[in-house]
Design a protein that fits this description.
Blueprint: H1 18-26, H2 42-52, E1 57-62, E2 67-70, H3 75-82, H4 91-94, H5 99-110, E3 115-125, E4 130-143, E5 149-158, H6 160-186, H7 190-198, E6 204-207, E7 213-216, H8 218-224, H9 228-231, H10 236-239, H11 245-256, E8 263-268, E9 274-286, E10 289-298, H12 300-329, E11 333-338, E12 343-347, H13 349-355, H14 359-362, H15 367-370, H16 375-388, E13 392-403, E14 406-420, E15 426-435, H17 437-459, E16 464-468, E17 473-477, H18 479-486, H19 490-493, H20 498-501, H21 510-520, E18 524-535, E19 538-552, E20 558-567, H22 569-590, E21 594-600, E22 606-608, H23 610-615, H24 626-632, H25 635-652, E23 654-662, E24 668-679, E25 685-694, H26 696-723
Antiparallel strand pairs: 1-2, 1-5, 3-4, 4-5, 6-7, 6-10, 8-9, 9-10, 11-12, 11-15, 13-14, 14-15, 16-17, 16-20, 18-19, 19-20, 21-22, 21-25, 23-24, 24-25
Length: about 725
């Protein structure tokens, strides 16, 4: 693939996308199952464009091989060992260690069933070792233009850090409560109490009313960084500024009445380092001396976790905003409905255009109130989605819709997808819709056209049949084809290969012609083709005028052949008999020096026997046109003899004349031409059939006789005078 694909208009859908956009554009996809991006289906191109411009972690697993394409947001999930080699290979290979878990999920989505899961744990090898990772993810089917699922769109948010932080927080809280209970139970026995305190996991401090320390456990001393001797000379205000004298008095009073809930503050160790702690206070009475104890739990890690949670929440909010923005910009019509009344929470411009409603008419209102005309059709579907908690897919669904103030019916493809809260309960429905009215109407017209076409075939007086596929299965054949040409019943041929029904065709030229038409998509026709066909009455020879016409699908591929046949056997056999008779006549006339000819008065087509060419001074193989014949007639004889003879022939129906012919060598001969004029039903002359004979010798003899007769008459006229 060329590196400048990002600027090529035909690959505009691969523009932008950050680092992954550059990797995708630079990859040679022709070496992958997807092939060159120029051949990618429109649905794949659209989803790749959406994915590259989406900040969420997303990837597409396309085709039966689940070939992967992913964006920058998904790249960190692959870690150091799976990226970038995951691009363009199968998901089976990239996630081989968990394929036994997700294979059924992918197969289900390829069957049109989407999947959404929260905090799902996978044991992944993505950084050179196996680690437990948690994810929120959704698998959605990507449908091609023919409605079939072409691949899987995966949207992923990794929740590993959030899950670990929450688990740690929960564990720490459980540990804190457990230790607090243990300490409270041990307060009556100071030795046991100190033993327990010294072995506690959190700092434990006993304070006097003046703010000095009665006791610190080992972890408290270690955390603060003071020695045991130094602790005796410092006050609680030295480690926490909030514990001044006034505050300390208040806390002592409230601790005695157990009215102090745990609170957060900042403590400082000897080195001046400040860290957050959660303080739980209580009171003790030791030897009539009031003391206040404090459990100071270091919450640095919890604060970090909370910050991560806040950051994650902020990212989620930002993601939701980006999601809403993506919904608004999506080419599909999308709406989010919430609650039992299906309140419209969100609807993009495409959806509002689809239903012909404004934002004020939709947002914040029950969908069935905003679109009352659809209630009867849509309400049961919504309730079924809520009941089953499964998506509903509508294909070419007929729905009434009021647009431009007029109620009309349109066809729609749509998905009603249930939306769940964090507790897994259904909270709403996402509607994704696309109008296909024009497509469905076009399909209906096509079906009507096909039905009309089939009726035309069945009712045609001309033998016709339709073959389908490369096995040439007989899909239909009309009555005249069955009875006159095949001489078989419909039950004997329909649904079977024509080469199976008529195996004798395999030894003839017709299988090759069928294959040529199916392969090239070009029509083939012939005149008077010989075919041997064995029907129920035996083998029969036909002369056929036929045409093999390819039948095309909407994608331009040839899926069948329509055969039209005209049985011209009787005509051909009759003509052959005439030709044989003419040949016999020609053989007979050639021996007498008489030539035959025929002239079509409309087309001027002139047919003659070889002897005529010889008379006109040409070789027997020479074909003479009527114009050539006229051009060789002596100019003096054309008007006075030939044209007058034609006029008389029209009147008398007999055409004859004698004229001179100038041969190519300039010699002159005499011909006698005679024939009969034929007329059509309207008494218009259509052709002349006749004979032509060389009468040069006859004319010469006649001239000699005439010359002798003249001499005799001169002699006779002079005889009386001589006698006299």
């Amino acid at each position: 693939m060329k590196n400048d694909i990002d600027v090529a208009p035909k690959f505009q859908f691969l523009s932008e996308g950050g680092e992954m956009g550059e990797l995708i554009r630079s990859k040679d996809w022709s070496k992958t199952p997807l092939g060159d991006p120029e051949t990618w289906p429109p649905s794949l191109r659209t989803m790749v464009s959406v994915m590259l411009n989406n900040p969420f972690g997303m990837y597409i697993a396309w085709g039966k091989e689940y070939t992967q394409i992913y964006n920058d947001g998904y790249r960190p999930i692959l870690g150091a060992t799976k990226h970038p080699q995951a691009l363009g290979i199968s998901t089976r290979e990239t996630f081989a260690e968990i394929w036994h878990i997700v294979e059924s999920m992918f197969d289900g989505v390829m069957n049109g069933v989407p999947i959404g899961v929260s905090d799902f744990m996978f044991a992944l090898d993505r950084n050179g070792f196996i680690e437990n990772c948690f994810f929120d993810f959704a698998y959605s089917p990507i449908r091609k233009e023919d409605g079939e699922v072409g691949g899987v769109l995966v949207t992923v948010i990794e929740t590993t850090n959030k899950k670990k932080a929450l688990d740690d927080l929960k564990e720490s809280e459980e540990r804190l409560h457990k230790k607090k209970d243990e300490l409270e139970n041990a307060l009556n026995e100071i030795k046991l109490f100190k033993f327990m305190a010294d072995n506690a996991g959190d700092p434990f401090i006993l304070m006097r009313q003046d703010g000095s320390f009665e006791y610190l456990n080992k972890i408290a001393i270690k955390r603060l960084g003071y020695t045991t001797e130094e602790i005796e000379h410092i006050r609680v205000s030295d480690i926490d500024a909030n514990f001044d004298s006034d505050k300390l008095k208040e806390l002592f009073f409230r601790a005695q009445s157990n009215t102090i809930p745990p609170f957060e503050t900042l403590q400082k160790n000897k080195k001046g380092q400040i860290y957050p702690v959660e303080i739980s206070l209580g009171s003790l009475q030791v030897e009539d001396k009031p003391l206040m104890f404090a459990i100071a739990r270091d919450i640095t890690e919890r604060k970090k976790a909370e910050k991560e949670i806040i950051d994650a929440s902020r990212k989620i909010e930002e993601s939701e905003k980006r999601f809403r923005d993506s919904v608004q910009q999506a080419p599909l019509s999308i709406a989010i409905l919430r609650g039992p009344d299906f309140i419209v929470e969100l609807a993009n411009d495409a959806y509002m255009l689809l239903v012909d409603r404004t934002s004020e008419q939709l947002i914040g209102r029950p969908i069935l109130e905003a679109l009352p005309e659809v209630k009867e059709v849509i309400d049961p579907l919504f309730k079924e989605v809520i009941r089953t908690e499964r998506p509903f897919h509508g294909n070419e669904f007929l729905i009434p819709i009021k647009r431009m103030g007029k109620l009309e019916h349109g066809y729609f493809n749509f998905v009603y997808h249930p939306l769940k809260d964090e507790d897994g309960k259904i909270s709403g429905i996402m509607v994704v819709a696309m109008e296909v009215t024009n497509t469905v109407k076009a399909k209906h017209l096509l079906e009507e056209s096909e039905m009309h076409f089939r009726n035309m075939v069945m009712q045609s007086p001309i033998p016709m049949t339709i073959l389908r596929g490369n096995e040439y299965i007989i899909e239909t054949a009309n009555k005249v084809m069955l009875e006159n040409v095949w001489r078989k019943t419909e039950a004997e041929v329909i649904g079977k290969s024509i080469l199976e029904v008529f195996p004798e065709l395999r030894e003839q030229k017709y299988p090759e012609l069928l294959e040529k038409v199916l392969t090239t998509g070009e029509t083939h026709s012939e005149k008077e083709s010989v075919a041997y066909i064995e029907g129920n009455d035996g083998m029969k020879k036909f002369y056929l005028d036929f045409e093999y016409a390819p039948l095309f699908e909407t994608d331009g591929k040839t899926s069948g052949i329509m055969i039209t046949v005209n049985d011209v056997t009787d005509k051909v056999e009759a003509r052959k008999k005439v030709e044989e008779a003419e040949e016999r006549l020609r053989f007979a006339t050639d021996g007498t020096g008489v030539s035959t000819w025929e002239l079509d008065l409309y087309t001027q087509h002139f047919v003659h026997s070889p002897g005529l060419a010889v008379i006109f001074g040409h070789l027997p193989s020479k074909t003479i046109t009527y114009q050539q014949l006229r051009s060789q007639i002596h100019p003096e004889d054309v008007h006075d003899i030939v044209e007058n003879a034609f006029e008389q022939g029209i009147k008398t129906r007999m055409y004859k004349y004698e004229a001179r012919v100038v041969k190519p060598d300039k010699t002159i001969c005499w011909i006698r031409k005679q024939g009969k004029v034929f007329f059509d039903e309207d008494e218009n002359p259509v052709k002349i059939i006749g004979t032509l004979q060389d009468i040069t010798e006859e004319r010469q003899l006649k001239e000699v006789l005439q010359e002798s007769e003249s001499k005799f008459r001169l002699l006779a006229d002079s005889l009386p005078q001589m006698i006299w």
